Amino acid sequence: MRLAQNAFRTTIGCLAGAMLVATGACGHSTDSTSRTSSPSAKVTAFPAGSSIQSLTFGGTQRQFIVYVPSDLPAQGSVPLVVMLHGGFGSATEAERDYGWDELADTAHFIVAYPNGLNHAWNAGGGCCGKPATTNVDDASFITEVVKIVQSHENIDLSRIFATGMSNGGLMDYRLACSTDVFAAIGPVSGTLQGSCPHPEKVSVIDIHGSADTHVPYNGGVGSGPGHVDGLSIPAVNEMWRKVDECANPSMRSSGVVTTSVAPCPDGRSVDLITVAGAGHQWPGSPDRPVVQRLLHTDTPSTALNATQTIWEFFSNHPKRPSN
After folding, report:
1. Mean pLDDT confidence for 255-263
2. CB-based burial of residue 173 (10 Å sphere; 0-12 exposed, 13-18 middle, 19+ buried)?
């Protein structure tokens, strides 16, 4: 059983002086320069459930949460989803509110929740917060988190995905602009800010409310404290269709939800889901008015479950080599 194996592995990991990554229970730390994703360098598997991991990156102690379902298959590789919290949020908040752990249990994948410095990500174009003003290399930090998870678990390298809310959604696009790790991204209430001279050919599913004032659907400066000033959501979608050399999109509508689907070579797709009348929110997440005020988000739409929708897209769009 996976649970029993993890219990044994966790005990060994806490005793091993050479352990490179800390679980919350063990309290060890690692310098990111010592990590490797080579299969020959794999160390103790993470414990089942949620655990807090630490690493030193760029001279700063950073953390992320990793969630490992208790009944992952004993053999074979599994997907990895990196979930990025929004501005003012945290890994803990993202894990609690967006339902990825519960879905991971049934769909058998691992989830990593990195923590941004000062509750924000340097997503480019001046956003957001202290990470932007101090030019933190969050793309490399998140890539390092992926490498650490790879060194502990048997991750399918063709099925590594990134999703995120708000500032986390902006960071998804930054990852696609500056790394080649991810097969697909799934930003919610995010956009692209800043330049993107070398975009990676990735599948994209973007979910956005038409009445979002913090990250305006039609682009420009948002009303929120992050002062987002990015491309319109249709413009970002068009840009990535060109990057992926996609066919013209087909459109379908169901109630307030309009979906644009553009098939692309090598099995990729660039999709846009527009929720009419919805604000700055993650559709299908719990309605938590107090938390929403703190995070500067709006009441979640009930028109769809963004987490389930994004996962279905991810599961159908692994990374494939370009012709």
Report:
1. 98
2. buried
